[in-house]
Amino acid sequence: MPIHTPKRGFSFEFFPPKTEAGRRRFGKVVQRLAQLAPSFVSVTFGAGGSTREGSYQTASEIVRTTDLDVTPHLSCIGSTVEQIAAQLDTYRAIGVDRVVALRGDVPEDEPDLPRAFAYANELVEFIKASGGFHISVACYPEYHPEASDPSADVDNFVRKVRAGADEAITQYFYTNDAYYRFLDQVHAQGIDLPVVPGLMPMTDYQQAQRFSRFCGADIPRWMRLRMEALAEDSDGQKELGIELATRQAEDLLRQGAPGIHFYTLNRAEPTLRIWDNLGLPRVAAPAPARPRQRDLRPS
Ligand SMILES: Cc1cc2nc3c(=O)[nH]c(=O)nc-3n(C[C@H](O)[C@H](O)[C@H](O)COP(=O)(O)OP(=O)(O)OC[C@H]3O[C@@H](n4cnc5c(N)ncnc54)[C@H](O)[C@@H]3O)c2cc1C
């Protein structure tokens, strides 16, 4: 199957920058990646107070300064039902009509945060009932770390899809077979929504180990050995990470994946290089940031 077809969707995930310098750098990253004309960009949600605000501020800043479709993440943890309803209204008012609906995780230092719903399927149901949003959900080809067993995790995912999801985005993984097997399990239950693989280029091995310990994404032995051989060579790790992610994405697209969701970690270069390696088209020179007025939509 050709790598690029108009039907595929490529999206980029960002997190809200935490400092003023980070915000300035972030604006440039967004402008550089905007030239690839992604289907949408998403902004993560932190359950703690400041990061929750950061998600809205970052999403609305991208809406204000670019023509990109923005998909904020929303989680059950860190908000009350009323706060989620109000947040959806605010997003509608600035022209945002897509969200990623998540359960989220309880931050270690803030165990007593409100929890609007127990699981993401209830949040999906709530957003669906409120109307007007395209809803993405998360899934885990190597299974969610808290799942009692793989088939229970798939059943829970299927429940979430049936609650009204339009698309799923996977946790990152480095073994494509896990994704293909997961799709088989999901298809066997009659589910055929797009399941877009999440791609996390391993450009910093120590960081990847930290993330993977937390989220359960396996780093295969051959990859660990190759990265460990570059323990003192951060540029070498980056080059290898980009090369391996390119090959991984190429295989996923050739096997028919509906697109790729790039976990950018707020960096432009790895995504741009993988994009070029894959021969995907660059559509425009980076546009300067400019204010924009979006249509207001009724809530
Ligand atoms: C694409 C993507 C984006 C993400 N973005 C963010 C983000 O912005 N902010 C953030 O904090 N985290 C984010 N995460 C991480 C996510 O919040 C965590 O993985 C979290 O632990 C699970 O969220 P979920 O929506 O998948 O939960 P759920 O679908 O609710 O699943 C959570 C666990 O509960 C089980 N479960 C589900 N429903 C039931 C049920 N009814 N009964 C019993 N068990 C059930 C599932 O099997 C799973 O083990 C993201 C993950 C992905 C893949």
Mean pLDDT: 93
Major sheet size, sense and barrel closure: 8 strands, parallel, barrel
- In the CATH scheme, what's the topology name? TIM Barrel
Count of the domains:
1
Basic shape: globular
Under CATH at level 1, the class stands as Alpha Beta
How would you portray this structure in words?
The chain has 299 residues and is α/β, with parallel strands linked by helices. The chain has one domain (9-277): TIM Barrel, CATH 3.20.20.220. Helices cover 43% and strands 14% of the residues. The chain has ten helices and eight strands. It has helices at 20-34, 49-65, 81-93, 120-130, 150-162, 176-187, 205-215, 221-228, 234-254, 269-277; strands spanning 9-14, 40-43, 70-75, 98-102, 134-139, 167-172, 195-199, 259-263. The protein has an eight-stranded parallel beta barrel, surrounded by four helices. Helix 5 (150-162) links the parallel strand 5 and strand 6. Helix 4 (120-130) packs parallel to helix 5 (150-162) and helix 9 (234-254) packs across helix 10. The protein is globular and about 50 Å long. The model is unreliable at 290-299 (pLDDT under 50). It binds flavin-adenine dinucleotide.
